[in-house]
Amino acid sequence: MIIASFLVYSIIFLTIFNYSYLKEKKENPNIPKKPISKAFWFPVSLALAFTIIVDAMKFFFIFNIIIFLVVGVVLYWLFNFYSKR
Questions:
Q1: Is the pTM of this model over 0.70?
Q2: Which H or E element spans position 19?
Q3: Transmembrane segments in this chain: where (predicted)?
């Protein structure tokens, strides 16, 4: 899942950052080439950072849900146990 989200984010960022350049290049073929760092590495590194951040937030969300469920089960057990006495 991480690889799929990274690929999707990479395609999105590559499209966003290179769309205007490709449009200008199509209209005027004499435009100099865009450096590889700006055309490829920056969008891909941005996609990697975005993937890490989003997956970390998913992890914390799932972790919080698990903690909430454990606390809920323990409280239910405590109230159920003490209400029988």
A1: no
A2: helix 2-27
A3: 6-23, 35-53, 59-79
